[in-house]
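Exercise 3.2. Students should predict the tertiary structure of the chain below and write it as structure tokens, then compare their answer with the key that follows.

Predict this chain's 3D structure.
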Amino acid sequence: MADYLDLYDYRCRMSAMYRERTQALAAGEDAKIVLQRFRRAKDALFAEHPQSALDEEQQRSFLGLRYFPYDPAYCIPATLEPIEEHISHEMALSPPEKLILTTIGQLHFVLDNEPVVLALYWITLYGGGLFLPFRDITSPRESYGGGRYLFDTIKGSEPLPTSGKSSRSHLTLDFNYAYNPSCAYNDRWVCPLAPKENHVTRAIYAGEKKYH
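Answer key:
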């Protein structure tokens, strides 16, 4: 039972970190300082929590995750366009487990003066959750080869609303908060990765770098 309670605690702590980030930014705090505080809290979770993505041996030698420097240019407003026909992607996990990702919309934004579209997914499990994975051309040299996540609401990471916009059709994609899936740290994890439609043909020098 302890493992389940630890996992619940980890997700609660992660959710609290994202809520604190959103509230601090809405209150006008300096975005770089907010990010630094968030990264320190995440490093502490990885170093100490029993549900860390790191195993016990990795935790003993852990000195912190590796990140690109903060860059406000990678905090980008996006417009969410719903799609009429939802598309499902079946992803194999540990046999016989399978995960269904359903495309529910497209996020439109501009990166390096070029239009980019990312698919927004719904993870079809009990309760469900929003999921935004991506892969860019920093992968695999500088970032994890399987790509990174911007948010996965089942695990506690959350999208960032656009300041001054009340509509759900507007989100801010802050790639400074991009992070690795658990499988980036060791082989005991199996994770859903970004489908090809979310492979970006631009370099995103923001967020977490590859661990190894």
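Discussion points: The chain has a mean pLDDT of 91. The CA atoms of residues 95 and 142 lie 30 Å apart.
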